[in-house]
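for the record, two folds in this file. i put them one after another cuz i was lazy. first one right below, seq on top, structure tokens after. the second one comes after a little note so u can tell where it starts
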Amino acid sequence: MNANPPLGVLFHWLGGLAAASFYVPYRGVKRWPWEIYWLTGGIFSWLIAPWFIASLRTNDLLGVLHAAPMPVIVWPIVFGMLWGFGGLTYGLTMRYLGLSLGMAVVLGLCTVFGTLIPPIFQGDFAAKLLDTPSGNIVLLGLGVTMAGIIVVALAGARKDAALSPKQKAAAVAEFDFRKGIAVAVFSGIMSSCFAFGLAAGEPIKVLSAAAGTGPLWTGLPILCLVMFGGLITNALWCAWLIVKNRSAGAWIGRGEAGAAPAPLLANFLLSAVAGTVWYFQFFFYTMGESQMGRFGFSSWTLHMASIIIFGTLWGFAFREWKDAAPRLRLMVWSGVGLLVLATIVIGYGNSLAA
């Protein structure tokens, strides 16, 4: 199947919508500590959904993974574990900074590392980006992406400086700018390891295609490995918190003495939906990447940009910007406009090389 960059951009937008939306169901979870609902949703994100979907859409999943060389199996898991630290702190970033500002800072760093390091590591950065007109256009799109991210982040920082503590708490209950920025920087750097994990598992795509899997789905077995690595990291951290806080009883409705019982069915369903939606960002990511031709690494930029676009929309929907000055709301929309432009530029650059 020939590359189809416009279709790839659409898939990346669907993935961005899923990534920006996954935390919304968690807002409805009641009287469960963070480690309980994060691990509950994570079991769907990192274990159930990847293996279930891959088993449906690929041929001979276990046979393909068994045929892959050991390093091709191990490295995606290792990078997945590192990515797990980013995903773990990503949730904390949303708690401390809110959807708009949190996503801008995390994904800005994630964009730079996740997009540029793979071609640099593979030794074809110049050949892909510097030596061809299509590569120059893609590089221009990366620059526009970073400009958009900076504008959105600056708007968020200025909004923070202008609001009173009471207004900040009304928009984001646990708002803490300094703590949130520190967590976001760490999360952004570690989250980029997901792109490295996908790159390390590239040979699996060839094996999956040889087994008869269609081009749109050959990346799904790699997701099983990378996300299993993420499960290891997150499960260990959540298990430590569960032991420390003695919170395991929350799964069966036990809470603090005198506290109202948690709505278990609703909490389980909301966590399952959140976790499954989280997985679908990468489901659509692999589909989009399959359509981007020789500049497949630019998929990471498109993915990050679309997450920020939809994350900002959610931020406005939840009235995180209701007390911000009109000029700041205009500023953040200008940043979103730059990100939309960047996706068009990158898609055009990919189409020239298709």
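(here's the note) second protein begins now
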Amino acid sequence: MNNIKIKICGIKTAPVLDCCKDLGVNYFGLIFYKKSPRNINIKKATDLINIQKKNNIIPVGVFVNHNFSDLIELINITNLKYVQLHGNENNNYISKLKDKKKLTVIKTISIQKENDLKQTDLYPNADFFLFDYKPKKNELPGGNAKSFKWSILKDKNIAKPWFISGGINKNNINKLLENTTPYGIDISSGVEDRPGIKNTNKIKEIVKIING
């Protein structure tokens, strides 16, 4: 068994969350982006967070260029401790967020070519990076079921611990593990029947493969 952390993103229902908890999944993502089929409202998100308060699975709020004051209000309501910034938020935004609330911040870096890794230098105040497929103009910021070339990350020395995401499923997870050594793997579309609808059997399958 390896020590790679697992994050299942875009969870919207208690049965799926319970499945993740029972499997030892480390993080679950709550997406607060209205254009996403995985979007969740504050009430449902708070209910899921409260369900898991006594367990070791960590809720992560996922945001895309969210209005700063609205984000602070949402954090106050939900009591989130982890946020993932999946838009064009800069290091100043991260600094203000961490000054205002005691948060752990995951900053997404969109990857298409090796040179894109230099973007990590722009976010010294982030706690983690998440490397994802670089979306095209008409695509969502994440959850497109598409991957970048994972070998770009092979043997790279990254300044902070990092997650990897983008089109990961049971058919390609072994290839990913051969090419990368992430802190964590972030999975969404690869455990769905259709966008926004998670399949607990698919979650079980891929967690089993990751855990060896």
